[in-house]
Every structure is written in structure tokens, then in C-alpha cells.
Amino acid sequence: MSFSPAIRIDGDFGLGLFLTADHARRELPAEYGTLGLDAHEFERHIAYDIGVEALTRELARRLNAPAVMAGFSRLLIDPNRGEDDPTLIMQLSDGAVIKGNYPMSAGEREERMQRFYRPYHQAIAEMSDRVEQTSGKAPFIVAVHSFTPFWKGKARPWHVGLLWDRDDRATAPLLQRLRAEPGLVVGDNEPYDGALRNDALYRHGTCKGFAHVLIEVRQDLIADEKGVLEWAERLAPMLAEINSMDEMHVVRHFGSRTGPVDAEHRREASVPAIHRP
Fold first, then answer.
1. Does residue 79 have a cis bond before it (omega within 30 degrees)?
2. pLDDT tens sequence across 13-57
3. Closest alpha carbon to 260 in 169, 166, 193
4. pLDDT at residue number 112
5. Phi, psi of 52 (to 5 degrees)
6. How far apart are CA 131 and CA 15, in angstroms?
7. Where are the domains of the chain?
8. Residue 247 dihedral angles phi and psi, to the nearest 5°
């Protein structure tokens, strides 16, 4: 059976919206075995974002939106890191030594980039182009992730967090809607900061001026079908409503808190750029 670096989900490209899931899967090509890890390590967050594939598929179904998911474990190479990021290929992750990643020759690193990392990003770029061409407007990108309930022995209080850099067109209205839900603890750039240079949304959203948001759901809340359905039922109507806003489909360059935006990925705006402090 062939191993695909990118898994595409069909949908209505005319909606102007598509989903991504960088850490949806824990699979490795057969020739990599288990990278020297015990099998149980692939049940943990170090291998993939627990619950994200199911949530992405359910959101895509409810929204009738296309999606693209990485088909490989982040232990092989992390598609949500820049090519020059030292955590691109992890050798130690949350106490687990990844023997298959050490030592890492320059040739093997480039092999993984060519076979897995770059084809996944090419799939996102192609989907973005198709959404834009079909809908006639700039795409709105929703990245789906999940985070561990505990980190370094400390409980994380958030049920969901939204990550962003300087473009809050989608984040602000989604934060407002989530915070209106009784009992939800919602993180704003928690549990992580959304300004990460050359990560997936930096490349495909920030640099191109496309509206985007990264949603992080706590893993214990989407670890089973009941939780997935609950969160899909909550998020899908919110995303559909936000997608209907004209501001989600205009190219605007906000820049990045990480520094000047790379010209390599930048797309010229069709309207005057807006810069916010």
C-alpha cells in the first residue's frame, strides 16, 4: 500500500473556506519502522494530535468544506515547523528518545523534506489556489490542532485555545463566540503563542494575507466520538458564520510579530495593507 504525505478531503471549494490538520496522523512508512520507539509511544501526543483527524473530518462534513491533512507522524518530520527550525525533526520529545532520528545526516533530512514535508505544503498551496479560483475570493484557512491536558505535571485549564499572530480577523469573532458559551475556558494565544516564524499558517496565511485561525482543542475532550461530535457541533456553525463575513475573503497584510514577512511567500494585496500594533 502506498504512503501518501497528504490526505485530501473533498468539499465545496466555492465556500471560500478550507481546513488543515498538520498533526492528524501517527503513521510512518514501513521502512522507518517505529523510529526505535516502543509501540505505546505512538498512542501519545508526541506522535500526533489526538482526536484531530476525527474532528477535522466531522467539521469538513458539517461545513461541506475541503480539507488537507498530513499523512505522517510528526515524529518523522513536523510540517508545522519551518525548514530551518531546530525542532523540525525531534530527537527527544517529552521524555522519549527517538533513536531513529539520531544521528540525522543531511541526506536523510533532505529525503524527509522531499518525500513528506514539501508535498504536504504543496497540497495546502494547491488547495488554497483551487478554493480561490473556484470561489473567486481569498480563502479563509482553519487549522485544527489539539493539546495535552497536562504539561510538566501541571493541569492546563483551557478547554480550547485560539492561536494567532497579528491578523485577528477570524480569531476575534471566534473568541467572542466561544467565550459566550457557558463554562468554557478559552485561551487567547494559549497554551501556545501563535507567532511562529515559517510554521504552516505563517507560510499559507500570514505571508499571503489570507484570513486564518488555529484552533487548539484539549485532547481529553475529543478523545472519543462523543467529544468529537460535541466540538464539531459547537465549532461548525461558528466557522460557517465567520466564513460568511466579507473580511474573511480579502487579502490584507498585517505582518508578523516574528519580524518582516518573507518575500518568498508573500502575495501582493488587492487592497491597501492594514497594519495593527
1. no
2. 999 999 999 999 999 999 999 999 999 999 999 999 999 999 999
3. 166
4. 98
5. -75, -40
6. 8
7. 6-249
8. -65, -20
d(CA 217, CA 43): 17
Q: Say if CB 212 and CB 242 are below 8 A apart.
A: no
Q: Quick check: 231 and 215 in contact, CB under 8 A?
A: no
Q: What pLDDT score does 94 carry?
A: 80
| Those residues with Cβ within 8 angstroms of residue 264's Cβ, 6 or more apart along the chain or in another chain | 207
pTM to 2 decimal places:
0.94
Angle at alpha carbon of residue 201, lines to 230 and 224, rounded to 5°: 20
State how far the Cα of 214 lies from the Cα of 161, in Å rounded to an integer.
Answer: 8
Q: Tell me the mean pLDDT in the region 126-142.
A: 98
72 half-sphere exposure, CB direction, 13 A CA radius: 30
Residue 148: half-sphere exposure toward Cβ, Cα within 13 Å: 13
CA distance 40 to 27: 13
215-243 core/surface letters (b: 16 or more CB in 10 A; e: else): bbbbbebbeeeebbeebbebbbebbeebb
User: Nearest 5°: phi and psi at 241?
Assistant: -65, -45
Long-range contacts of 89-98 (CB under 8 A, 24+ apart): 90/46, 93/46, 94/44, 94/45, 94/46, 96/37, 96/41, 96/44, 96/46, 97/36, 98/35, 98/36, 98/37
Q: What is the DSSP letter of 32?
A: G
Q: Which CATH superfamily is domain 6-249 in?
A: Zn-dependent exopeptidases (3.40.630.40)
Choose among 257, 17, 7: nearest CA to 137: 17
Dist. CA 130–CA 124, nearest whole Å: 10
The SS3 of residue 106 is helix
Q: What is the mean pLDDT of residues 202-231?
A: 98
